[in-house]
What we know:
Elements: H1 12-17, E1 20-23, E2 33-38, H2 53-72, E3 76-86, E4 95-104, E5 108-117, E6 123-135, E7 149-150, H3 163-167, E8 170-171, E9 176-179, H4 194-209, E10 212-220, E11 229-239, E12 242-251, E13 257-267
Antiparallel strand pairs: 1-2, 1-7, 2-4, 3-6, 3-10, 4-5, 5-6, 8-9, 9-11, 10-13, 11-12, 12-13
Helix pairs in contact: 2-4
Amino acid sequence: xxxxxDPDAGRSLTRYFGLxxxxxxxxxxxxxxxxxxxxxxxxxxxxxxxVRAGALLTVADSVxxxxxxxxxxxxxxxxxxxxxxxxxxxxxxxxxxxxxxLRTGRNAVVTGVSILDDGRSAALVADGVLTSAxxxxxxxxxxxxxxxxxxxxxxxxxxxxxxxxxLAVRPMGPAAVAIDLDDRLxxxxxxxxxxxxxxxxxxxxxxxxxxxxxxxxxxxxxxGRVGPVMATVETVGTRADGTLARVEVRDRGAADRLMTMxxxxxxx
Length: 268
């Protein structure tokens, strides 16, 4: 069941990150551009001090997905493929994610996204591409005032729990982790948010390999509706730049349906 009639639906993750979203293209532009800003607080950092790749993946999916959605109006989009390369593990913040439409068609939108560290003279932190399918939501797409501006509000650094705790990630052996499909993790389509899936993939890969996620390619194959959702990791080889892992994400409550396949490179 979709929730597009509620413009606030599906925004729990962006509020958790403190991710403010704004349309930066001129009114009436054929191809919209969108930016997102967030502070780099402790809840998005790993114990080693780097920003979690799962956080970067969620931000990329959210900003690029919104940009693609605006390009698809009066339809809307759902993520199908996300690729992200982490260029730097350093981050001072605030971070700025900039998305632009690379290609648009009747059935799909391709959006590029770069995440920059404005605390380091706009140094590149991550770069990626999101492909989204164009669908027609029952009842219509979100009715956002344009140019769009979605304020996330402030995040309390003293009370906001770290990302693994927010998602309630739990280990399921040496090569798997799982989460429950809490309603706050659903997007406006009523399914598990692509960013939450990406963060789960990141944490599963790091749990299994002991490394730090650097490059991720995700293929979203089917929606997560029931839960629990489990990510299982198979280490398939090593390269000069790290360990290559294959990650499967399945909806255990929906006959173990395969939701996502991912290839992840984890650096030592």
